[in-house]
Amino acid sequence: MSTTKTRINISLPDETRRALMGLAIRDKVPEATKAARLLELALEIEEDQVWNKIAEKRDKHKTKYFSHEQAWK
After folding, report:
1. What is the DSSP code (8-state) at residue 6?
2. pTM of the predicted structure, to 2 decimals
């Protein structure tokens, strides 16, 4: 049975593999599914950090702020 998903091979330390196995068992999903979901979450966190750095650069002191209602007029 073929799949449209890209496959990757990774080597895990024993401790990480045991943690992944335990989470997969807890959530009643295959280890590969759990690993893929954890990677998705990690990528979201990385993306949030990038957006936060951009926002911090734009954040200036003594800036006039508008309320939500004012901004959407």
Report:
1. P
2. 0.71
